[in-house]
Design goal:
heterodimer; A: alpha/beta; D-Maltodextrin-Binding Protein, domain 2; 2 domains; five-stranded mixed sheet; B: mainly alpha; MetI-like fold; 13 helices; 0% strand; globular; transport (chain A); signal (chain A); SBP (chain A); Bact_solute-bd_prot1 (chain A); ABC transporter substrate-binding protein (chain A)
Chain lengths: 447, 303
């Protein structure tokens, strides 16, 4: 955090003092050094290993820089503005549409064709996500993620629940199904009374049954309401994803879903919004204040790393239309301002190759985009006694849906995030707040 | 050469100009030019990513007038400024007078400015942890004394007072030192005369200290009001939680600079952000004018 702020100050200063050689990122002479950015600190070791192997093969050096998610995108934007963006960087579906729109990243389809990159080697659907509205390709897949739940095994047993109970949980917005019963039983107030017992005090909760990431950070509801609404048949975009513009935030199924979440906050089974505005759900889980969390597969290692707590993983509950998870994949993109296009492409190609993907699999932090590499990761996890099939089960049943890829997603998130806040605070009924948000979204999308 | 130098040396205006040159250069390059450029940007649809913009006339200003979030963030900022300045100035004045009347120890003065030495981002993170509703140390203390936990940054009603409190904690010592410096300029014999006339501490404060402190107070007020309007890093770091969207919950801490930053660097809407900044600049100039005029800040009663 400290470092990135220093960097943020350094950016305009470098821009102003373009003549000062000390600001220059690339080395002199004939040796090429590529700047490569990512946001997840847990993934530095695997990409450092890939970078070392790449340098040994090609002689091209790679300098890896990491910024936390909150700073990553604004840092990247200022660097683009100064035409000093990193040669290659980790790209996200929520942000790449505006990069394409403003032509700050390079299309790579000609390179892909020239080098005969086998796009069929990746999990189905991942490669197509990075084809823009102009039909050009802007990235090669490197990993994917789905959403499931992490539970505290000790708390589960204390509530008289088994792993199977969570795995077989059902959900609907009217009575919450067996899932509501599970989170009620996992909730304990300060007097030791459980949520399903009479006399439970919702204002003095010691352990919450359920928690998740601050939902205001994405209009997809990726780690909160999105998957539940989908299990009612809700679709975020009526005219198709990617590249739709017709958002459906006023759909009654979404209002039902969010009303259920607000009811769970009131009942004392779900952490109130105030707690999600603090240090966050992983710290609460670690402190023993939360029994069950909804989280992405990228966060698995934050939970398995907790000492003194036995953690298990289970898929999201099955709704009326089945069990669904949002499916998101990352890719590496090349900045249009790079002075080393060919080297940057070599590095992108290497990152998406089986060689580097196997390293990603071995480190078992995220799921690589190539199935054979994932197999390696599964073996590593099996040896560690870790079962993450909760996250892969959606692929087998083909119950995944894509992260929204549209223009102006940040503005949409601002409008919807505030509405979701108001609903979870209990200040407004979901239908009213979401209808108002939809009006704003329509004007943002120019409809 | 030497003859020409002699001529320059005997011309005070030329010497002054020479000395002003470095500062003048810095002013033109780092203040004047960016300000003019930003003003030009506010009449375009400038996009940071594209690095260019087309002339749109007054469109940004029209949009701004009709943007409920702009007015909302102005109200949020105003509330923050009023709370922050009220509490901070009163506390700083009390601290400065106590220092002046009771102790002139350099150690005490040093301790007072300690929080000011910590970078604002670190302050934000530190208080985010300490004020966490469930895990923070402050709520544990409040629970222990029987007041009960508060939501602080997590509550729409408490987030602005909390931010003002944290900022006051950081700046009050610094403000107190500025006022303290002003107090030392008040001649001692006036206090002796007041004591001889039988005025108590309280009366002396209202009749001697405060009137003579007026120009310094006006300056301190202008500095801290303008500084408070510009609150940004604290809100950006401490609100919305770790990984969330700053300005929450439900936009209750969306101060104007966070909103401007969002438009410029998240929405790639620098033209609109520049228009908001221009309106803010005019507003701040007006506020400064009224404070200086209202408190007759450029004249002293000592003369």
């Amino acid at each position: 955090m400290k470092l990135s702020w220093r960097r943020r100050i350094a950016v305009p200063m470098c821009a102003a003092l373009l003549l000062v050689a000390a600001c220059s990122g690339t080395g002199d002479g004939d040796k090429v050094t590529l700047d490569y950015w990512l946001w997840d600190d847990r993934q530095i070791p695997q990409y450092q290993e890939c970078a070392d192997a790449f340098t040994a093969q090609s002689g091209v050096e790679v300098k890896i820089t990491q910024y936390a998610w909150e700073d990553y995108w604004s840092n990247l934007n200022t660097q683009f503005a100064a035409r000093r963006a990193p040669d290659v960087f980790t790209d996200h579906l929520a942000f790449y549409p505006s990069f394409v729109q403003n032509q700050v990243i390079l299309p790579i389809n000609e390179y892909v064709e020239r080098d005969n990159v086998d796009l069929g080697q990746y999990y189905p659907g991942l490669a197509e996500l990075w084809v823009g509205q102009d039909g050009k390709r802007y990235g090669l897949p490197k990993d994917w993620d789905t959403i499931a739940m992490a539970y505290n095994s000790t708390m589960l047993a204390a509530a008289g629940l088994s792993r199977e109970d969570v795995w077989n949980a059902t959900w609907n917005p009217s009575d919450g199904g067996t899932f509501e019963d599970i989170i009620a039983r996992l909730s304990v107030d300060e007097n030791g009374v459980r949520g399903n017992e009479p006399g439970f005090d919702a204002t003095k909760v010691a352990v919450y049954g359920l928690s998740f990431d601050n939902p205001s950070n994405s209009a997809s509801g990726q780690t909160s309401w999105g998957n539940f609404a989908r299990s009612l048949g809700f679709e975020l975009l009526a005219d198709g994803n990617p590249w739709g513009t017709d958002y459906q935030f006023d759909d009654p199924r979404l209002a039902q879903t969010l009303d259920w979440f607000a009811r769970m906050v009131k009942a004392g089974y779900l952490t109130p919004l105030a707690d999600l505005q603090g240090v966050g759900y992983v710290s609460l889980f670690e402190a023993g204040d939360v029994a069950l969390t909804i989280n992405g597969s990228w966060a698995i290692s934050s939970f398995t790393g907790i000492s003194g707590a036995e953690v298990g993983f289970a898929p999201l509950p099955t709704g009326p239309q089945g069990r669904w998870s949002i499916y998101n994949g990352l890719a590496d993109a090349i900045s249009a301002n790079t002075a080393h296009r060919d080297e940057a492409w070599q590095w992108v190609k290497y990152l998406a190759s089986a060689e580097c993907q196997n390293v990603v699999g071995e480190k078992a932090v995220v799921f690589p985009a190539i199935p054979a590499s994932l197999k390696i990761g599964e073996q590593v996890r099996e040896q560690a006694g870790l079962d993450v099939s909760a996250y892969t089960t959606y692929l087998e049943s083909q119950h995944t849906f894509l992260y929204p890829v549209t223009v102006n997603f940040d503005q949409v998130t601002q409008a919807v995030g505030a509405a979701v806040d108001e609903i979870l605070l209990g200040n407004r009924p979901a239908a009213e707040a979401l209808t108002a948000a939809q009006k704003q979204v329509d004007s943002i999308m120019g409809r | 050469m030497s003859e020409r130098w002699q001529r320059v040396r005997h011309h005070p205006g030329a010497v002054a100009a020479l000395f002003l040159l470095p500062a003048g250069f810095g002013f033109v390059v780092f203040y004047l030019w960016p300000a003019i450029r930003a003003l030009w940007m506010s009449f375009t649809d400038y996009n940071v990513l594209r690095g260019s913009g087309d002339w749109v006339g007054l469109q940004n200003y029209q949009d701004l007038a009709a943007d409920p979030l702009f007015w909302h963030s102005m109200r949020v900022t105003a509330l923050y400024v009023v709370l922050n300045i009220g509490v901070q100035t009163a506390l700083a004045l009390a601290m400065a007078v106590m220092m002046d009347r009771l102790t002139r120890s350099a150690l005490v003065r040093g301790v007072l400015v300690l929080p000011w030495l910590i970078p604002q981002v670190v302050v934000g993170l530190l208080w985010l942890w300490m004020l966490d509703p469930r895990l923070g140390v402050v709520n544990h203390l409040l629970d222990w004394v029987g007041i009960g936990g508060q939501d602080f940054f997590g509550s729409p009603a408490q987030v602005i007072p909390t931010l003002a409190g944290v900022n006051t904690w950081r700046f009050v010592g610094y403000t107190a030192l500025l006022i303290f410096a002003g107090l030392q300029m008040i001649p001692r014999h006036l206090y002796e005369a007041a004591a001889l006339d039988g005025a108590g501490e309280w009366r002396t404060f209202w009749r001697v200290t405060l009137p003579l402190l007026r120009p310094v107070l006006a300056l301190v007020l202008v500095l801290s009001v303008v500084g408070s309007f510009q609150v940004f890093d604290l809100v950006q770091v401490a609100t919305g939680g770790i990984g969330g969207q700053p300005g929450g919950p439900a936009n209750s801490s969306l101060v104007i600079y966070v909103y401007i930053f969002r438009h410029a660097f998240n929405f790639n809407n620098a033209g609109y952000a520049a228009a908001m900044s221009a309106v803010l600049a005019v507003l701040l100039a007006a506020v400064t004018f009224f404070i200086m005029r209202g408190l007759r800040g450029s004249r002293s009663d000592l003369a």
